[in-house]
User: Which sequence fits this backbone?
């Protein structure tokens, strides 16, 4: 993965086509969560959040319609308003699923403390989702041939994750979610997507495709907007945000971005630690809050990492609570 990621990141970034984004502000009446595992977790599996096309070949007129599904983890016997966290598995845009053990562990961790957690599936390379012509042309011109398919697969993956977030908003009342307190997080490819969700505009990765080209977009709550308040980036990068800029001229890194927690192995051979440093530099320049945890001499995917005596889920808890000013009981 990292060869084409470096190429995408090093291409020139310019500012144009700027649109407003909702700032990651705090609200007057924060919700509360539990410091320790308190609630029994109820799991609703394979909930449909939308549909997407699966083409026989890239953007072919021959296709089938795929159901897009998520698993929902909710605390039992809790009628109070709750924060939400959307979690996204990794797998290099070629594999993985919402059943990833590390993502499931995070979902249970947060749900047992009062969050409603979601783990999503999204279309992978083999599903051949719809991709805008400009994205394909850019890949064919600027990305090494060996990595083009993976780069192309990034677009439908992001489109689907955005659809899942809009579904969350559309169904927030059903799960008693306070939409002022939304976190998105993931590992590796999932962290790339999560970072994009917290930084790009709500219409990005949807508006580039027309309903004529992809009629399943109508199933994805296009009328809903959202404001993500915190990002959890486990060994990911901001390369999809940069790609969006390079292809469409959208400069999305700015002071309205969501605060981010980055955990990244300094010896990561798959997604280089330099991507964590690049995000750190960008956040420093925009003045948005970030927390970087260099996982010294660790490689790719060190979910068992301990920093200052705390696991990654505990560091995530602390970061979300601090940034969203949640009440801890």
Assistant:
């Amino acid at each position: 993965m990292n060869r084409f990621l470096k190429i995408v990141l090093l291409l020139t970034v310019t500012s144009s086509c700027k649109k407003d984004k909702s700032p990651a502000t705090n609200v007057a009446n924060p919700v509360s969560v539990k410091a320790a595992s308190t609630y029994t977790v109820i799991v609703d599996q394979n909930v449909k959040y939308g549909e997407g096309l699966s083409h026989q070949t890239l953007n072919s007129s021959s296709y089938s319609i795929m159901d897009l599904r998520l698993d929902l983890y909710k605390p039992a016997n809790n009628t109070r308003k709750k924060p939400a966290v959307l979690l996204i598995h990794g797998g290099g845009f070629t594999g993985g699923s919402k059943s990833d053990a590390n993502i499931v562990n995070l979902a249970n961790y947060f749900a047992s403390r009062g969050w409603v957690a979601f783990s999503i599936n999204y279309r992978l390379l083999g599903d051949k989702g719809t991709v805008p012509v400009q994205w394909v042309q850019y890949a064919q011109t600027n990305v090494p041939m060996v990595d083009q398919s993976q780069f192309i697969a990034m677009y439908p993956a992001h489109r689907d994750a955005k659809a899942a977030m809009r579904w969350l908003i559309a169904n927030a009342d059903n799960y008693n979610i306070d939409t002022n307190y939304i976190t998105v997080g993931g590992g590796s490819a999932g962290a790339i997507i999560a970072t994009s969700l917290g930084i790009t505009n709500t219409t990005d990765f949807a508006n580039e495709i027309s309903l004529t080209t992809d009629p399943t977009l109508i199933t994805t709550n296009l009328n809903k907007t959202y404001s993500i308040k915190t990002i959890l980036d486990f060994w990911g990068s901001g390369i999809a945000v940069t790609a969006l800029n390079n292809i469409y001229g959208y400069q999305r890194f700015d002071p309205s971005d969501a605060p981010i927690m980055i955990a990244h192995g300094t010896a990561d051979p798959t997604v280089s630690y330099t991507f964590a440093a690049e995000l750190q530099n960008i956040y420093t320049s925009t003045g948005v809050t970030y927390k970087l945890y260099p996982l010294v001499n660790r490689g790719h995917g060190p979910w068992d990492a301990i920093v200052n005596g705390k696991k990654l889920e505990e560091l995530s808890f602390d970061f979300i609570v601090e940034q969203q000013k949640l009440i801890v009981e």
The radius of gyration is 18 Å. The helical segments are 2-10, 101-111, 133-142, 145-170, 189-199, 239-248, 274-286, 312-324.
